[in-house]
Amino acid sequence: MTCTEAKFIGVNRHRIGRDGDGVTTLACFYGCPLRCHYCLNPQCFDSNYKCRVLTPETLLAEVMIDDLYFQATGGGVTFGGGEPCLQSRFIEEFRRISNPVWKINIETSLNVATEHIERVAGFVHQFIIDIKDMDESVYKAYTSVDNERILENLRYLSQLGLQDKCRIRLPLIPDYNTHGHIETSKKMLAGLGFSDFDVFEYKRRKRAVR
Length: 210
Prior knowledge:
There is one protein chain. By secondary structure, the protein is of the alpha/beta class. It has one domain: TIM Barrel. It is 30% helix and 23% strand. The chain is built from 7 helices and 8 strands. Helix 1 packs across helix 3. The longest helix has 12 residues. The chain is globular.
């Protein structure tokens, strides 16, 4: 693949109220740095999964069919995965060639090098951030990696004053955290100026791929 190509596990149209304002199309990249125990998309790191390889231009041609829906509802394209921020150059190029009135959202764990966040921060309408838990031991037990990069990126977004563009998901994860953990996470995040929290409970679903 060239630097402007990326692997996708799917492109899902006509989503309402789930991935940003208005009508959105969810474009999910292949590849993820995490190995979450209850992963919803284990195909993101399944080496045998048959991905679609798209360029920003071919993705644009596919989603243009919904241009009127995006404009009429204030919607646009939400990039998910996997971890979309690993494909920050792709997203940057897609933003450059797409209709400027479309909103670009990113569903992310923030567990990436800060250079990726720097590349997209200037044009993303909403970061939908799946924090898991701010407690390092809980996070590592559940994802198999540490959360150092997440903390760096949260501080970076806070320094830019982008807290209002961030919705932070704080799940209750069976066997891993508690309501007390969630309240502690909220207090830590509030200390950085974040206030839009989505608290919910994960359903038990063990990953199929390790």
